[in-house]
Amino acid sequence: MGKVSVTSWGVLPDGHASAGIEVLRVVLKAGGNSCAISALGCTVTELHIDSGDSNSVDVVLGFDDLESYATRSPFFGCIVGRHAGRLEPKITLDGVDYELAASDGGGGGIDRRTNLHGGKVGWDKRVWAVKEHASTEHEAWVTLAYTSLHMEEGFPGEVRAEVTYRLTAHGRFHLEYTATTDRTTVVSLTNHTYFNLNRDHTINIREHTLTLRCDAFAKGAESGTGVPTGELAPVAGTVHDFLHPKQLGSAIDAIAAASPLWPHGEGFVVRENEGKDANIVAAGDINGLGTVAILRCPATKLTLTVLSSEPQVQTYYSTLLEDTEGKGDTVYTKHGAICLETQRFANAVNRPTFPTHVITPEQPYRQHTVWQFEFTD
Question: What is the pTM of this model?
Answer without folding.
Answer: 0.96
